[in-house]
């Protein structure tokens, strides 16, 4: 999944900005995302990114998907573990 931010501007138009390859520290990246939202006069937005979490020394690394959706009054963030099949493609939970 490419890193991207998507939103709806104040006039109801959707925008999507791909931000793959953005190698900024988290604080600076968040300021840049805020800049994008301000430039589009965003009313709502969603942001998604794949990340690795855990302790590599303990061999406890897992791939997760972080998703944020927000407007001026509400903010929600979700995290989910990514499950991959033998071929490396994302798969669903096994029954």
Counting DSSP E segments of at least 2 residues, the number of strands comes to 5
Beta fraction? over 45%
Distance between the termini: 25 Å
Main β sheet profile: 5 strands, antiparallel
- Taking Cα atoms only, what radius of gyration do you get, to the nearest Å? 16 Å
Number of helices in the DSSP assignment: 1
Strand order of the largest sheet: 2-1-3-4-5
Secondary-structure element order, N to C: EEHEEE
- Backbone shape: elongated
Mean pLDDT, to the nearest integer, reads 82
Given helix and strand content, the structural type is: mainly beta
Please identify the oligomeric state: single chain
Give start-end ranges of low-pLDDT stretches. Answer: none
Helix content: 10-25%
Structure description:
The protein is mainly beta and 95 residues long. The protein has one helix and five strands; from the N terminus they run E-E-H-E-E-E. It has one helix at residues 26-39; strands spanning 4-9, 14-18, 42-55, 60-71, 75-81. The protein has a five-stranded antiparallel beta sheet. The chain is elongated. The model has no long low-confidence stretch (mean pLDDT 82).
Keywords:
mainly beta, 95 residues
Give the topology.
Layout: E1 4-9, E2 14-18, H1 26-39, E3 42-55, E4 60-71, E5 75-81
Antiparallel strand pairs: 1-2, 1-3, 3-4, 4-5
Question: Can you give me a brief rundown of this structure?
Answer:
With 95 residues, the chain is mainly beta. It has one helix spanning 26-39, and strands at residues 4-9, 14-18, 42-55, 60-71, 75-81.
